[in-house]
Amino acid sequence: MNRTTVIVAAALALALAAILVARGQEDSTRPDPLPPPPPGPSSVSKGNVSLSALPSDRFVKVGGSGELFLDVSLAGLGKRRAKQLPINLALVIDRSGSMAGAKLEHAREAARQLVARLREGDRIAIVTYGSDVTVLVPSTRIEGDARARVTAAIETIVDRGGTYLSGGLETGRQEVLKHGREGMVNRVVLFSDGQANEGIVEPTELSRLSRQTLGLGVHVTTMGVGLDFNENVMTAIAEHGGGHYYFIRDSSSMASIFSKELETLLATVAKSARLTLTLEPGVELLDVYGYTYDRAIGARQYAIELPDLYGGQQRKVICKLRVPAGHEGKVALARVEVSFVDPESNARESAVATASVTLTSDDGQVESGKDRNVLARAEQAQAAKNLGAAMEAYGRGDVARAQTILADQIRATEGANTKLRSRDLDALVGKMRARMRGAQSAAPGSAEGRSLVKEGKYEAYQLAK
């Protein structure tokens, strides 16, 4: 190789190095690419259900706090056409005096539309409650002229009395249990426009009643109508009953909400779902965002009762953990199991995923091992929790406290999003700012203020799921 060739080769090498350095400088302003999911059984599927357990950090700094998030994700798959289970439903309708007029007419219309969409072989019971409880239609199989008879009975509902909510729930449960079995979707749909003032009225006792109902295999969905119901109670009943909670500000939208709930029942791919989180020795559970959980099944085991899962749905459970961070090496975090009844086989199935992290002293590894998608979902879950807390404070009349919570959370979310660059978090900041403006302009006890509380808490409820 002559001298000229050597010089040219050296020049090309230097030029290439310069290009690579420049590219590296340009790329340093962008987020690192998302790391691939960790290998091994972090994601599994069984029947029409997929389960994954992804840590927010693949590497944790030795000597650090050891805190991280575990994103447990469930998905209803569409790879096979799920068998549509027969529905065994009790519709429990508030007919107290406050339902008079448009609310009750819209409730009747929603019930009529729901009955019209039931399939042959489904079951429906209509229960109404005021100061007393009436079984307007005992659990009836949709066949022959049954649909017409149920629809005609709905037309007879008139308003009267107080709000004996617990009696309506108990009676609806009894109607479902008359014909309830594993091969059906057993559900009570309870709605009210007011606060329970007869029978069981304590929120903890109403939650206990709903938990008992779930224990009998009947899920409970709640629908709060207008601005006068207790959203905390209705949410707790749904949470403990393994169902859904809906806020219906305008009674004219009842029919569409009923339709949405029916769609979930028709597309059920996993019934009676339960998530069990078993932590490895030394790992601590600091929080579970948006879900109630039970530790009674073991010192390191936690159980979360979930609503039925339907096709195409994704459900996220974000857990905050602390891992002992004293020494380098791989550390197992948790074993996650979801058990459910598969409509295809009518048998109880389960899927298991595991998660682990590696403790390291290398700051570069710690940074490169962050999963920005999981961290963004964790930030959303934390923001949802604080949004709910802010609306709770505002509803009590503590406007200053509500503003402080929202302002602090906005700063925290914006700070996190400088690295995460999530459009969802950008949108969430906008929503929290809107809640701040609303809290500044409306008095807590006004119609606008009560609407702000219910809408904000419902938004927080949905964000956490």
List keywords for this structure.
six-stranded mixed beta sheet, Rossmann fold, 28% strand, 12 helices, globular
CATH topology of the largest domain: Rossmann fold
Low-confidence stretches: 1-40
User: What form results from the Cα inertia axes?
Assistant: globular
Distance between the termini: 68 Å
What value does the average pLDDT take?
89
In terms of quaternary structure, what is this? single chain
* Major sheet summary line: 6 strands, mixed
How many helices does DSSP assign?
A: 12
N-to-C SSE string, H for helix and E for strand: HEEEEEHEEHHEHEHEHEEEEEEEHHHHH
Strand content: 25-35%
As a percent range, the share of helical residues equals: 40-55%
Structural class: alpha/beta
Alpha carbon gyration radius: 26 Å
Q: How many structurally independent domains?
A: 3
CATH class of the largest domain: Alpha Beta
Instruction: Please identify, by name, the CATH architecture of the largest domain.
Output: 3-Layer(aba) Sandwich
CATH homologous superfamily classification of the largest domain = von Willebrand factor, type A domain
Please give the number of β-strands.
17
